[in-house]
Design goal:
The chain has about 140 residues and is mainly α. The chain has helices spanning about 5-15, 25-35, 35-45, 65-70, 75-90, 110-130, 130-145; strands spanning about 60-65, 90-95, 105-110. A 3-stranded antiparallel β-sheet has the order 1-3-2. Strand 2 (about 90-95) and strand 3 form a beta hairpin.
C-alpha cells in the first residue's frame, strides 16, 4: 500500500466528516457557530451593527468594550468565552498593543468572514420574519392553553 500525502489525508478526512455522527468534529464546530453570541459577535466584527437594510459590510477591528456595548445582555464571562473560542477556531484574531493601559482588539479573519456572510443572512432572516414567528407563537400558545 502506497503512502498518502498530507493533502490526500485532508481530502479523505473531509469526505468522512459527518455532523450527524456524535463524535464528528464538525458537530462540535456546528454547535459553536450556532450559538447566538457567536452569530452576534461575527455580525458586529463584520460591520453589520447598523440596522440599515442592505448596508455594506465594513469589517474592522474592535475593542472588547465596543463589542460589549453592541451585544446587550452578554455577560463579561460569556463574551470572553465566545471571543476565546472564535480565536481558537481561527475565526477572529486578538491583537494586544502594549500601551498604557494595554489595548486589546479583535478582528474577523478571512475564514471568519466567510462564516460572517452566513451569519449576517441568518440575523437578517430572524429580524425580517420576527412578526410572523410571533404570530405563529401566539396562535400555538392559544391552541395549547
Amino acid at each position: 500500500m502506497g503512502t498518502t500525502s498530507a493533502a490526500q489525508r485532508r481530502a479523505q478526512a473531509k469526505v468522512e466528516y459527518n455532523a450527524f455522527l456524535a463524535a464528528c468534529p464538525s458537530r462540535q464546530l456546528l454547535d459553536r457557530i450556532s450559538d447566538k453570541w457567536v452569530v452576534l459577535v461575527l455580525c458586529a466584527l463584520g460591520g453589520d451593527a447598523s440596522d440599515q437594510p442592505g448596508a455594506a459590510s465594513d469589517a474592522r477591528a474592535m475593542r472588547y468594550s465596543e463589542i460589549s456595548r453592541l451585544l446587550a445582555g452578554a455577560s463579561q464571562k460569556m463574551l470572553t468565552q465566545t471571543l476565546r473560542s472564535l480565536e481558537r477556531d481561527g475565526l477572529i484574531t486578538r491583537t494586544v498593543t502594549p500601551t498604557v493601559p494595554v489595548t486589546v482588539s479583535y478582528k474577523v479573519t478571512d475564514l471568519g468572514l466567510s462564516l460572517h456572510h452566513l451569519t449576517r443572512e441568518l440575523r437578517s432572516w430572524a429580524q425580517s420574519h420576527m412578526d410572523e414567528v410571533l404570530s405563529y407563537r401566539a396562535t400555538y400558545d392559544a391552541r395549547v392553553s
